[in-house]
Amino acid sequence: MPLLSSPRKGRRLIIWLHCCGTLLAHSCTAPGNCVSLPCTFTPNIIGKCNRACNALALLQTVAAHPETRTPFLEAEIPLYLFPFLKTTSEAKSFEYLRVTSLGVLAKVDDTEAVKFLLKNEVIPLCLRIMGTGSELSKTVATFIVQKIMLDEVGLQHICATPECFFEAANVLANMVVALAEQPSTRLLKHVIHCYIRLMDDPRAYAGLRTHLPEALRNGTFDNCLRDDPAAKHVLQKLLDKLAGPTGGAPHPCPGPAAGRSHGGPAQAGPSHTP
Ligand SMILES: *[C@@H]1O[C@H](CO)[C@@H](O)[C@H](O)[C@H]1NC(C)=O
Predict the structure, then answer these.
(1) Core-most of 6, 113, 188, 228, by most CB within 10 Å?
(2) Whose CA is nearest to atom 12 of ligand 1?
(3) For the chain (length 274 residues), average pLDDT per consecutive 10?
(4) 154 and 201: one domain?
(5) What is the DSSP string of 201-243?
(6) Does residue 220 line the site of ligand 1, with CB under 6 A?
(7) Which residues does UniProt assign to the signal peptide (predicted)?
(8) 12 lies in which domain range?
């Protein structure tokens, strides 16, 4: 796909992408509105959902391709997706648009892309969806947050202030509680990966020692993970990491066994050693 073999073709691509974005923003009076204001979707856009989703599928390809990713970001095309991400309707067609839009953001995964997502407040947007969306949109939103965290810049951003960290930690903890009621192995796996990555930051690690949901430590998910050795392994990795870096933990720590014993509620302990 030699789309960018010449500057002219590059410009053409950008124009094409903006047309695509404008099509997506169809129900707003002007595309500019969509970028900054949460626009209200009228019922008639639902009829156009399929077309919008086709355009979004194309955008996913553009976002994923190494040759087109940079112009895709430079032209700020992801901003066209935000109105879809901000919708809260539970109607199927809106859910479909949200998931497909998240799918576009999920394709961008280098530092440059992470900076773009941070600058445009994608984390609060994803956190909201993680708290309210369907299982599928929660999974994709968590996946995006996980990808952002995996980048050093992203992790630093989330752990920059206690407010920011605890906002993310609370959303994750609420998800764990919800998952105990309504299990989803794939979603749980992404949540655990987020916790594991957060622990790479010393302040976040200290916070999670006392704030990691009990359900992750007391065997609540044993059943859910029984048929998924990889997921089980990931949970074990989290518990090992929580227990300390070298195995020789300096104070009583909730190993998986201790956490499971009924008489001893797993406490992370008051210690704040990094
Ligand atoms: C594990 O912890 C959760 C949350 O505190 C609690 O609801 C659940 O009953 C516990 N399960 C076991 C087996 O102790």
Answers:
(1) 188
(2) 218
(3) 56 65 51 37 54 79 85 87 88 87 86 92 95 94 96 96 94 97 95 97 93 94 92 95 64 40 38 40
(4) yes
(5) SHHHHHHHHHHS-GGGTTTTTHHHHTT-HHHHHHHHHHHHHHH
(6) yes
(7) 1-25
(8) 1-108
